[in-house]
User: Fold this.
Amino acid sequence: MPINVNSPEYVKAEKEFYEANTLEDQLIALKIMISYMPKHKGAENLRQQLTTRRKKLENLIIKKKKSSKSSKTGIKKSDMQAVIVGKTNSGKSNLLKFLTNASPKISKIQFTTQRPEIGMMNYATTQIQIIENPAIDSPNYNKGLTNSADTLILIATSLEEIELLKKQIKTKQKQIIVFNKIDLFDTEQRRKLEATLKSKKYNFVIVSTKTSEGLEDLKGKIFQSFDKIRIYTKDPNKKEHDTKKPVILKPGATVKKVAEKILHGFSKQVKQIKIWGPSSKFPGQVVGLNHKLKDLDIVEFKTR
Ligand SMILES: Nc1nc2c(ncn2[C@@H]2O[C@H](COP(=O)(O)OP(=O)(O)OP(=O)(O)O)[C@@H](O)[C@H]2O)c(=O)[nH]1
Ligand SMILES: [Mg+2]
Assistant:
């Protein structure tokens, strides 16, 4: 017989458990749930289940910590990560400062940035990690960081520099060429440059981190480069879905993937799924775990 735990602290923690965005938050909620469990024998089974779940969660957190840290840099990789690569003085730090919340040191002195600088860019309700790799022409350049990035932002201030960067990078990620310091060009120089970049079929943006020209355009290109979809989740007890932190997945991902990303094993507890948005035939359509989702879909999981 399943028992009902009625203590308000337990109910509150259980709710927090299902709404938690991170494994760490889930573990905290679970520990609270366990501490408010009734002590009598009838609750023994449930206590056992929760304890097992706690152990699994603890192991998962340890595993995740180990796997998400690149052994070389110790940087925790997010769902979407772009690394800025370029020669010294090309404007890498200035670009990072514009795109993210980071405040790296900017200077006309060469090789100012000596360690990777990390920032977060908010774009279309998602968070994108952007990292400045120290100058490619310096001993502090971190090749491992470039290799493990999802997208590379190659920044340059001349065509020769672009060619050099392309030669030095052998990996196959998506590349966005950022031609910086366009404020120093006159109209004619600019026209020629654009024609050349187009003829080379580069995926490029012309910017100035001084005047901020082209930077909004670049943000869009960065987001698109990851080719990911955003899935919002909805609490069955609320009218509106959570518009802040979508689950980030590959196109064609199933509802099951969303559930499992929320919590490993969660898909097995789901009793009913409803969806709204581009992949639904009508708002609130009931679907199965294998339903394929589209960008901006909203999913609601019922577990009881
Ligand atoms: N005119 C102009 N100057 C710029 C622009 N972007 C950056 N600069 C200048 O270029 C110099 C280098 O900028 P940083 O952002 O520090 O360059 P960096 O690539 O991070 O250089 P290091 O970290 O030293 O390798 C600074 O003096 C900036 O003010 C731009 O769009 N236009
Ligand atoms: Mg720098």
Observations:
- Residues 86, 88-94, 106-108, 110-113, 135, 180-181, 183-184, 208-210 surround guanosine-5'-triphosphate (ligand 1) (CB under 6 Å).
